[in-house]
Write a structure and sequence with these properties.
heterodimer; A: 155 residues; alpha+beta; Immunoglobulin-like; 2 domains; 38% strand; elongated; B: 555 residues; mainly alpha; Cytochrome C Oxidase, Chain A; 3-stranded mixed beta sheet; 18 helices; 2% strand
Chain lengths: 155, 555
Amino acid sequence: MSPKKIEMVFLSLSAAMLLVFLMALFYSAYGMGMHLPGREDDVVPGEVRATPPFDDPGLHEVGPNQYEAVFLGMAWAFQPREITVPAGAEVTFIATATDVIHGFHVEGTRVNFMLIPGQVGRQTYTFNEPGEHLIICHEYCGAGHHLMYARVIVE
Amino acid sequence: MNTPVVASPEGFDLSDGHRRVIRWMIYLGFGALAIGILNGLGQALNYADVDILQYFPGMRDYYQGLTVHGVVNAIVFTFAFTNGFLALCTSRALARPLNLPALWVVFGLMVSGFLLAAYAIGTGQATVLYTFYAPLQAHWAYYLGLALLVVSTWVTGGVLFAALRGWRKENPGKRIPLMAYISVATYAMWILASLGIAISVVGILLPWSLGMTEQTDPLLTRTLFWFSGHPIVYFWLLPAYVSWYVMVPKHAGGKLFSDPLTRAVFILFLLLSIPTGFHHQYTDPGISGGMKALHATLTFGVFFPSLITAFSVMYALEIGGRRRGGTGLIGWFAKLDWKNPALVAQLLAMLSFTLGGATGLINASYNLNQAIHNTAWVPGHFHMTVGSAVTMSFMGIAYWLIPYLTKRQLVGRGMAVLQSWIYFVGVLVMARGLISGGLDGMPRRTLIMEAPYSKDGWELAGLLTGLGGTLMFIGGALFFAVLVGTVLFGKKVDQPEDVPFTVTHEPPAESGWELSLDRFRYWFIAAVVLILIAYGPFMVEYLPGSFTSPPYRFF
């Protein structure tokens, strides 16, 4: 094969690879429902503690084995520090930050989003296996950043 | 065909004035890298539970060191090296002198920017990392310093554009020499890309840090940061690509595959580097999933020119390897000149970049990103791109550039080759640690040593990170030994070797559609249109923004 021909084969295969990857991703998002956080509500950071649902952080049962877990991130703790849910629970995490940007990663799950002052993050996950997951603040938020974590206990 | 990539391939004598100013830019860049690598050792050892940062004079905490590490490596080192290197490439390619006073202005801007940022960070008033997410608020000197560093790239871009315009006037109808074309295209991309960070820093954060405004918008400033923050990785990378396209083939004894394909690659970077920033914000609430999907698609698009680059580079290397007696499917690779430090550093840079690129594609993969976002995986990834592919390429370039600029012979060729291998093995070991730790949920940008939480797998990950980082430090230290040795003790030569540049197999066309590649103006407009499509809907919906966050100084 001439170099020109090898080039065309290589570039066609490269483009095909990228297209296949992209289609798989969009199938997982739009076909299987694994969505990224999107545009939700705005909230004024200074008034967040008076704004529902953040006036009552914690775990709230909203249906049969369905929960909303409302979290606030602040320097350098989450509120609440721990929630306990039964195995099989479908939990919608609703969270924001009161001061600076924080991170919210329920490790071992795909619940992973930023807590940006003024923006409300929301993500749903079903905990099938009993166990314990750390919630880690994974964005630098000041001198005590590494002290900031919480837990999800699945019973 | 053997078509040169420069005008006057027979020779061009760069004036001593040019050599001096470019030399000082390169020294500034590598000086910054030396500070960055020293801090990097402290960061890597943090993961292995070893605290050396307490012995760093004036260092208040880990995050201050991490801010230094990011700013000097990702901004000062890359900007200073690129301003000098691509100025040289353009001047040599056009065989024309540049605007010398303007280049000294560039140097002055970089030094002042560096000193302002160093003052703010050094006194503990800007521990905001190099991403400076508001509403963490740094001292104004930090923002002003960064702004001056960005302006230094604009002035350099202006110098290069002016040189090109002058050359075109004197050479009407001629194709732009390839080496100048790709250098100027790099600056065209970056100048457009840097507008986001400029608007954020000068328009919002600087007045806010001076107390002229009280509140800021964290999502808007973050979005403006990533508008520039993704294309900045191509501003780091493209100077290395310039070398891989037009210089590495010369070192390897091969030649460049195609002139038009190379131009097309740089145009694709101009078009696609910028409308991709939301892939750093996949996990940000406040930006719709549809816009993120669009940016994901365009990010996969900007991966394509890198795959073309892989083809071109392999073509050039294989020709070189076979000319040196290499046979078989991959046997030619072993036959390359593994004793030439300039080549070895860049070959290893390319190898590390294959893993860096693959992990980057995973980062870009829309919802898959949630598995690794802001975990240690991410620094694992980017130490295989900017931390080695770019850094090792710049080191490799230095092995001919420093002798060229100082008119001295390289001292310690053997040590230079060894240095690359140690750094390369180090980065792979460190990345293996960070990547596995990240997959086990270990966060990035975190003083892991003192965190009250931990997970299975973090200990091994941390040990590998510390070990790899130590090797990188040793490799880096040997590089500086070679560099300083050459500058101080290298044997003086009257006429140093010319800039190494290759010839092309497929020449530039003199007529037809390819000529449109040289019309930067139209490609620039097309890039602006793509940006409007990619960012317009978000901005229309979101602006005027919600300026509701007061400043915090939690450091």
